[in-house]
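Quick one - inputs below.
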Amino acid sequence: MRAEELPDTELLVLSRTRPEVLGVVYERHAPAVFRYLARRIGPSVAEDLLGEVFAAAVAARLRVQPHPSGSALPWLYGIAGNVLRSQLRRSPVQGLLDDTPAVDWDAVDDRLDAGARRQELQVALAALTKAERELLLLVAWDGLTPTEAAQALGLTPVAARSRLHRARTRAQAALDEMTSAGL
Amino acid sequence: MDLDTLLRETAAVPDPSPHALASGRTVLAAATAASGRRLCAIGRARSRRTRRLGLTAIVASAASLVLVIAPTVDLNGGRPVATADAAQVLLRAGTAAGAQPGGWPDAAYWRSVSTYHQGSGATHRREIWIGHHAIGVLKDDGVDSDVIPLDVALFPAGSRALSWDALYALPTDSLALERELRAGIGDRPGKVTDKDGELFVIVGDLLRESPAAPALREALWEVAARIPGVTLVGVVADSAGRSGVAVERGDQRYVLDPKDGRLLEESEGRGSTTVSANAGSAPDGASAPSVTGQGGWISTYLEQGPVDTAPTATNVAPKDKKG
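Output:
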């Protein structure tokens, strides 16, 4: 079987001794990792960070435990989050909700059609803790299942589901309050 | 506003441009190449530090050495060469290596047992079966608790990687060998500023965990004897307590057995060795080398030879040659 035909789980195991197979992982998942980065920090910086994420993956591959879902994305998003944090420490940007790399609002503003969406998103996410925010966005923006997002964030699946439920409830309540206030 | 709708609408981003993907691919390829070299040569990470060692290598005085020391050893048409005493040691090691029995052009595997440690980390045992035609395997508790499958044998030589058969096709005339190895350095992508240092590293690359025939080992040590900047450290005890003679260039050090020309140990970066004043005698008073800091490493080669079979790696799929 060719490397291109192997599932992510086997590629990650194989990468411990054959790091070049991460090239297959790259071809498979680089667009998704790019979009993860672009949603949070904008497409321009995301272009610069894409290779950095995969270079970090080369170093981290000896510690990877493939997720039961079979996808390498939870692992890659976890690494991408770390790279994003490092980038924001190096080049702080205006408009961050806090010191976690959930969202660079200027970048979000640039890519959203109208300022109204930006305001709604900011209100919804501001109601959440840092950890809840990252979890919600991994699921809603990046398409992970709650258990996959749990791996990316180092949580248990049960804790992730519980936290996600609370986050969704609070974010929706914040939106409702905003609507009823006529903002 | 419904939360799901909001999140869906704000998730849309453009796909990466072809340029962004190509750029990321290049960064990954560089990281992979560096990592691959490290895996193939764990314990001998080839960082290109240019600074000299912080330690003071106490070189035994010429007068106290039993070794015959000529005022100059010029084997290279007037070019500066390794210091005279280092060159003598290397030439003697080459002669001794060339006198050994053997030559394994048709062996199935080359098995080598070594220990290594990096920085202040733990010492790991490494046992490798390098496959002539079949895949090789590695047992290395510093990498994995399972048996690890490897590629079919490839021996690094500058920009090239030599197969087992190509290793046996190398010239055993040391001048011809040096020309060929230096040509390989010239082909290497990126700028190699210290070509002599690179050649010194290649000598080690082709001697360690390698089925190189005695004639090639002799030629390799002779090549090393002509490399400018190689100096004699003196008699040392390696990490296994064996007596050997150390030569170094920059922070790359080889400890060899002058009796048979074997490479006993090598280190890079922050190797610290106390040197006995009586070269050629038992290493009384010589202490085992140590490495401090995260950058340095020591590999100690305990045994090696041809074998017919290798363990089977069962933990992951074997290498697919098409992939």
